[in-house]
Amino acid sequence: MPRSSQEEVAFLMSQEVWGKILFLNAMKGEWEEVKEAYRSQSSEVQKMKITRAGDTALHIAASYGLTKIVLQLLEIIGDCASKSNILKIENDKGNTPLHLAATIGDVEMCHAMTTIDPDLVSSRNHENETPLFLAALHGKEKAFFCLHSHCEQNCHSFRTKNGDTILHAAISGEYLSLAFQIILWHPHLVNYMNESGFSPLHILANTPSAFNSSSRLRPLDRLIYKCLIVEELKGEEDIKKICPQEKQPESNINMSSESDQTSLDPKTKKKSDQTLTNSWRNICCSPSPTKRGNKNEAARDAENPPQATNQRPEQERKSHPNYIYASFVNFLCLIITKALVEIDRFLPSGILSIDKINGEKRRHKWATQVMKELVKNTSSYMSEQTPGETRAVDDESFEEVPNKPVTESGEETKMGVSEMVDEILEHYPVAIQDVDSENKNVALLAVENRQPHVYKLLLKREKQIESLLRQVDKTGNNALHLAAKYGSYRPWLTPGAALQMQWELKWFTFVQTSMPSHLSVRSNIEGQTPKEIFTTSHKPLQKEGSNWLVKTSESCSVVAALIATVAFATSATVPGGLDNETGEPVFKDKPAFDAFTISSLVSLCLSVTALVFFLSIITSRYEAHDFSINLPRKLLLGLTSLFASIASVLVSFCTGHLFLLDRQLRYVAYPLYAATCLPVTIFALAQLPLYYDLIRVMFGKVPQRSYKEYRHY
Fold first, then answer.
1. Strand 398-401 to strand 192-193: parallel, antiparallel, or no bridges (unpaired)?
2. What tens digit of pLDDT does each residue of 560-576 get?
3. Whole-model pTM?
4. In a designed cystine with 428, which of 100, 275, 492, 608 is the match (CB 3.0 to 4.6 A)?
5. What distance in Å separates the CA atoms of residue 223 and residue 227, rounded to the nearest whole number?
6. 275 has a pLDDT exceeding 80
7. 192 phi and psi angles, rounded to 5 deg
């Protein structure tokens, strides 16, 4: 019967009162009262939105990760149809309780909700995101497996508005174990492109820090890195073994045991006979994507990879030619690693950083595995008779798009992953002839974007590299023209504009020596030779480097002059004076006197030498070629003389002061000497990084690129 006006007013007042009661109880965590309200009131109360964001009590409990409360509320609701209707309620962002459960990765909630209504996995919020996509986006691997087990045939294809697939999302967040599993289940997703024209392979190429070629470790860290043993990813092709389809009692739902313990080696998959996409720029020099997900969560998920059982027969393993050697190496590495772990316990935190290095090696190894699977399954570099890559048109339809390079987005940040280039050329050698929209092949792109690892990799292909280097782009630039150009980015791993200029000269020289000599004098369409382009484009850096050298030399000259003044006064002073009868020094037979005399003279000579070098830098002409050898060598010799003079003057001071103390106080004076020398020592230590960089740049033939400033954000 229809309600009367009075009944309607009373009903609305009741709704408002119950809404406030539910809200206050939920905010205070008094869930027993919420459950009591669910039991005693009508379904209208159970469906009630109690926050400004349009959340029900079930939304709030799910977002807080209150698994037990969610399961109890669902049990109170009653029949399956009522549960399904309440679970379909969306908040103002279009999220159902399952969206929130998937976001936080609660497996029990996800299994309980999808068991009630499997269609919930296909529900989309206002960003066109499904719960399955959100689980991949946030790296919730176990929740993803659970939701995937309830998916229909095409559930894995759901995308957000920008056209990302679940594989795009997993790789963007660097959830590598999850991405590896997605590729095994749905290899065709490898060829899907988002609205920006990026495939999952391009997304991975945009994260060079995930590969060993871009890592920069200290020598000790590199030794630890090589000794650590990291397990490879082992995927599971049967989803039922990870998350069973059958309904379990809600109070006993536990996905963790099977997710962690059940994993088999993937079956051998048929190798794709199709070649790679026409997109060398994104592989050799690709833009940084926006990283999704939480780094801490990614690291935590990476720490617990699925443990696989080795199904390879024992006899087959032992008959492998390298089995004994590999076993010995692994055993040796295991012993070294154990020893390092024990040593690390007695050292201050962070000295060895074994956990950090182990995580980095795991990341590199897993990224390489994912990359190999992507390359093996790609089918986007193919003839015109075969379909191209697939791209989303709207929420429900997809279209085939022609193969074209993903280099027309005007990206500026460029990167290189030599492991990926090597893998592509290993599978598809013809890809080395691929060019982008500006007619630049892989060699030209590697040179233009300062990718030493990639370029040296290409130089090993002697039969192909010469033809690649002879090629020119649309404006007539060959590889040396591109090496001569200088952009606004600073790719070299060295501080100071002067050292940047030196690396640029070394890079230009390195490329020039690898090319036929007659190509170095070729002109482009504008009539410019490589040398003319280098001189013109590097003028701002040349000026900046000149200013940097002048300021550095002036600062060091002041210190050198002060030391020279002190050393001169010290060298003209005789501790203890002269003997009145013989005219010889009183302490001439003491070892400290000899040390004082020699150190004061050495300090004077070295400080004057340093001063001369710094003054010669200040008065230099600062031509471009001077930055290659002349100026850096003067700076290196000047700093060497300065550091040596500092050490000498400290020895001179300490040995000379010993004569002023009584024998009983000499040992007490040693700590005082150390404290007195501390300020000067700090200055020397502050300049040591510059000194180290100068040595590295002076003796390095090929520049070392830095990836720190291009890490994804």
1. unpaired
2. 998 888 888 877 776 66
3. 0.72
4. 275
5. 6
6. no
7. -80, 135
pLDDT in tens, 308-332: 334 444 444 444 556 676 677 777 7
- How far is residue 543 from each of residues 501, 561, 590, measured CA to CA in Å? 10, 27, 54
Would you give the end-to-end CA distance of the chain in angstroms?
A: 60
More confident residue, 318 or 90: 90
Q: How far is C-alpha 86 from the geometric centre of its chain's CA atoms?
A: 42
Instruction: Look up residue 509 and give its two tokens.
Output: 């020289």
Q: Identify the H or E element spanning 398.
A: strand 398-401
Residue 477 near residue 675 (C-beta atoms within 8 A): no
Cβ-in-10-Å burial (0-12, 13-18, 19+) of 713 comes to: exposed
| Cβ partners under 8 Å of residue 428, min gap 6 | 275, 276, 381
Residue that the structure tokens 């390092």 belong to: 340
Helix axes 107-116, 97-104, angle to 10 degrees: 150
Res. 110 pLDDT band, cuts 50 70 90: very high
Type of residue numbered 141? E
Cα dist. 140→146, 155, 344, 409, 538 in Å? 10, 17, 32, 31, 48
How distant is the alpha carbon of residue 78 from its chain centre?
Answer: 49
In contact, 493 and 706? CB cutoff 8 Å: yes
Cα(546)–Cα(623) distance, integer angstroms = 9
The pair of structure tokens assigned to 599 is: 């150190």
**Percent of the chain as helix, strand, coil, to the nearest 5:** 60, 5, 35
Extract long-range pairs of 214-220: CB within 8 Å, 24+ residues apart: 214/415, 214/417, 214/707, 215/360, 215/364, 216/493, 216/706, 216/707, 216/708, 217/357, 220/352
Rounded to an integer, what distance in angstroms lies between the CA atom of residue 178 and that of residue 305?
Answer: 9
Closest CA to 53 of 67, 63, 41: 63
- Are the CB atoms for 510 and 701 separated by under 8 Å? yes
